[in-house]
What we know:
Elements: H1 10-21, H2 33-58, E1 61-65, E2 72-76, H3 78-101, H4 108-126, H5 131-149, H6 156-187, H7 192-198, H8 205-221, H9 239-247, H10 252-259, H11 261-265, H12 268-289, H13 295-315, H14 319-338, H15 340-349, H16 361-385, H17 391-411, H18 418-446, H19 458-484, H20 488-498, H21 503-511, H22 513-519
Antiparallel strand pairs: 1-2
Amino acid sequence: xxxxxxxxxxxxxxLLLVACCAAFSPGRRPxxxxxxxxxxxxxxxxxxxxxxxxxxxxxxxxxxxxxxxxLASFRLDTLSATMMVLVSFVGWVVVRYTxxxxxxxxREGAFHGMMLATLAAVxxxxxxxxxxxxxxxxxxxxxxxxxxLLFYPERAEAQRAATKFTLVWGAGDAxxxxxxxxxxxxxxxxxxxxxxxxxxxxxxxxxxxxAGLLVLAAALKTASFPLHGWLTEVMEAPTPVSALxxxxxxxxxxxxxxxLAGLLQASPVAMAALVMLGxxxxxxxxxxxxxxxxxxxxxxxxxxxxxxxxxxxCGLGLWxxxxxxxxxxxxxxxxxxxxxxxxxxxxxxxxRPGPVAIPGLxxxxxxxxxxxxxxxxxxxxxxxxxxxxxxxxxxLGAILIFGxxxxxxxxxxxxxxxxxxxxxxxxxxxxxxxYFSFHVIATSLWGPHLPEPxxxxxxxxxxxxxxxxxxxxxxxxxxxxxxxxxxPAAAGLRVHLANxxxxxxxxxxxxxxxxxxxxx
Length: 520
């Protein structure tokens, strides 16, 4: 009987048990609570690893209570096991960092309790097997993160960020609730796996409306354009909160999409919306990130761009690569936030670079041609050895190579030394090999449990071409930027981008954020 019970269900219970201890010692330097909190996260990680072993040994497992729309279901499958190991590992690292970071704070004990409770809600989220548990977990994550954002409640900026987060997160919860009820009316079931299987190749109109609402919910949860501003203003909270948010909680929208991949793929309109919204958010976030001078703000805009790119992957039907993106981004971003102070000191110690080689138009053209030729050679080699890739996978790889071509262009500039040219060409080749290698790994690990990318039709081909052209033009403009960076129009554009085109300011006015800041 124990083998049929997912062991990972005990992990959030363990964290909640220790979180309750914070009620007895919420103040400064609580006795044994920081060590107990870290021990709880280590225990949760051990249970997550045990669940992975259980999955490999006995196959998927589930725990279901109730029936109908109120079905409470927990599952152990490839997706939940992967996310549980990721969340528990990041949670342990963040809690371990918190022990020294918040040592001596007036509400140190309360922070540990709130952090553990929020982590527990995230763990419930990633192992939810039904809409009832999914909705409760999303609500719990939102409540816990709001309390963490208000750890310094006297700060007006923290109040404004928490207010915007609550509005956007709550709107996502509302969209998800309506989608769940709509799917219940269409299919008469609330189990996530069963819904994905029941969708078939073409979902009925009610299910397609629900798929659109799921896309909306995921976009709000991942801070997509244009309601991304709350994510870039959470720096008033302690650094561990930023690390947990950017490395864990922000991925919940992607988890939602991958959990219902079969249903979403049966709605071409929903997939197209993901491609367009994700692609634009990725470009917008990356452009704004390049104009930021503060390291944490730049990291926040990087998260906006990365989440947009993850939505683009989902819209192309590259579900395994989207899951790999979530794992890689979580590990990278947790380290980036927790080490941000050390990074600033390291940069300050570096010697300032000398003159930079500026590529001209001909050098940029040669760089993109060289990068694409190397990519085509690697793609052909992998295709002969392993098998051909889908059009979506090839297009995504080309978009990644556009970013490498920017480096190659600098290596091909007239004033660039030969060593730089060789290094940049090697970087392009290595990026192409790495992309296809990781694609093979992701497909082997998660591909059998996720839908295959759909065969492109007219709409899909139009979106693929649009994505390639758009990302290509932006990469070319970035490579040529040094040639016109000193033009007055470029200076004005930089100011507008640095302020995120003032979309966040518009949301501030809607919620009275400026008035709150002045009053405080």
